[in-house]
Amino acid sequence: MLTNIPKGTKDLMQDESYKWQFLENKFAEFCALYGFKEIRTPIFEHTELFQRGIGDTTDVVQKEMYTFEDHGHRSITLKPEGTAGAVRAFLEHKIYAETQPTKLFYKTPCFRYEKPQSGRLRQFHQFGVEVFGASNMIADAEVISLAYKFIKYLGIEDLELHINSIGCPECRAKYRLALQEFLRPKFDELCPTCQSRFDRNPMRILDCKSEICQDLVKGAPVMIDYLCDDCKEAFEDLQADLKALDIDFTIDTGIVRGLDYYTKTAFEFVTNSIGAQGTVCGGGRYDNLVEELGGPSVPGVGWGMGIERLLMVMEANGIEIPKPSTSDVFVATMGENAKHYGLKLVSQLRDNGIKADLDTLQRNFKGQFKYSDRIGAKYTVVIGDNELETKLFQVKDMDNSTQYEVKEEELIQHLVEKVNA
Hints:
The chain is an alpha+beta fold. The protein has helices at 17-33, 47-53, 59-64, 83-92, 137-153, 169-183, 192-200, 211-216, 229-244, 289-292, 307-316, 336-351, 365-374, 385-390, 408-420, and strands at residues 37-38, 44-46, 67-69, 75-78, 102-111, 123-132, 160-165, 250-251, 263-270, 279-285, 300-306, 329-333, 356-358, 379-383, 392-397, 402-407. It has two domains: 17-168 and 228-316, 2-Layer Sandwich (BirA Bifunctional Protein, domain 2); 329-420, Anticodon-binding domain (Rossmann fold). The chain is built from 15 helices and 16 strands. The longest helix has 17 residues, at 17-33. The radius of gyration is 28 Å and the shape is elongated.
């Protein structure tokens, strides 16, 4: 073999793809119930978009992005998350000039260069939603509700909602001073990356993955104690809205999220069933991001949900996604004339919405019946010279192994009715 799959990536094979199709279809259905419309953005963008949007002091930008120079000497980055690209599209297509709010959802691959481990790949996939133009906390409650209802529909019970407020630039300035004061005596013990963040963005130190830095920030002041009146009121409104929706939550002052664009609301859905990598869905509000990327002042809120992790949680909770049948009807043929008749029959069945297949390996009848059973066909139609001559076709019900005759002119309608019964 010439080469193996790149480290940190995974093939999605035919025995798993149906699970993804099921989740993608259900996610789209739930988004439609909430009035969201789909958006699809490129898997790569100009690097500056992520540097300005995500923040150049974050782990994502400093350590994890797949960045390269294209043939036009432009710096290009494979998208590490979905929000920045959605905001760029919102601005570029002037959606802000239309009636607000704008509700968007997407399914997208994302790319981050980090150590591969359970639930964390270098190419991973996300569901995401974004709401632009709504400053009221009811928008935050709505996007949280969408995630909550979708997760509950899938049958997952081992999941908790954690919420926090990380304030706005006004109250964050006061918190920054308090955090620096707490960390200053420990400065020399911080990792080199966090030392570089001390003056520029000390909040990013709270999100450092280094165990040493995590120990050093224990007991640090929390943002929620420094909220301005507006942010405090917004956080109280969010809690009241969630209670109105009967959505249980825990206030978790440790949530800061790994991206700089968040303001006010930050939240995560977490589980204990998949080990340390327990965050399945995370998001929050980003009221300044559109303006920071060159647009008008438009508030926003949204979340991203890891599809691989979602599947891991479902598996850990013993939740099985129904496996669709590969074939409704298999047509077994013997002889040249029967082969041509079988080709026409499967075509007509497919035109009627029936999943139909026939032998392409020239097996004998016994081999064809074995194959029909292996692919899970509900019915097998036998076509040979005798059937073509008498215009009576043998149909075998594969579930109970009964076999009976059906007239040629009734065959297609009979199979359609049987399969759809």
